[in-house]
Specification:
This protein is mainly beta and 160 residues long. It has helices spanning 20-23, 156-159; strands at residues 8-11, 14-17, 33-36, 42-57, 60-69, 74-79, 83-90, 92-97, 100-105, 109-112, 118-122, 130-137, 149-150.
């Protein structure tokens, strides 16, 4: 049976009704907001725009947001509670995984497993902002301090 407008799709216990006001979001025209570290600190040179998101099951949400990183900005080593895919919209930058910086450029997609330490930084040789579309499951709001947890290196006393 083909789906028509306002069709309900059953997802186990959760019934989702398509809502164009909620499920169609233009990440280029919506207002930008500051992003925050897990300690509440504003991440300098990094702003975001919330895209479409929805709860797809008990305690599980999916969503996509646009992240804009000014030249010189970076996300230090951090984790997320869920897996995500980064799609590079414009410019060049690097994703830091397992001690290695991997170059990313417009059109690239990068899969990051849940709870996997990684960092993202701009290419210092490029003046254009690095723009990413971040798809996450579970999805956390773009301005949430729970969106990421910074990974701190162990203190010298803890290493002994």
């Amino acid at each position: 049976m083909p789906l028509n407008g306002n069709s309900t799709v059953g997802l186990g216990e959760n019934e989702v009704l398509f809502d164009p006001g909620k499920h169609i979001r233009n990440v280029f025209t919506r207002p930008e907001c500051f992003l925050h570290s897990s300690d509440g600190t504003v991440l300098e040179g990094i702003r975001g725009t919330s895209g479409a998101a929805e709860i797809i099951g008990p305690g599980i949400s999916v969503g996509a947001d646009r992240i804009k990183m000014e030249s010189g900005a970076e996300f230090e080593l951090h984790t997320h509670p869920g897996a995500h895919i980064l799609y590079v919209l414009s410019s060049r930058g690097y994703i830091h995984v397992d001690g290695v910086d991997y170059e990313m450029a417009a059109g690239d997609t990068v899969y990051v497993p849940a709870d996997y330490p990684h960092g993202v930084k701009t290419d210092p040789a490029v003046d254009q902002p690095l723009e990413l579309l971040a798809f996450g499951v579970p999805h956390m709001p773009i301005d949430s301090t729970k969106r990421m947890t910074v990974v701190r290196p162990p203190m010298a006393a803890e290493q002994a």
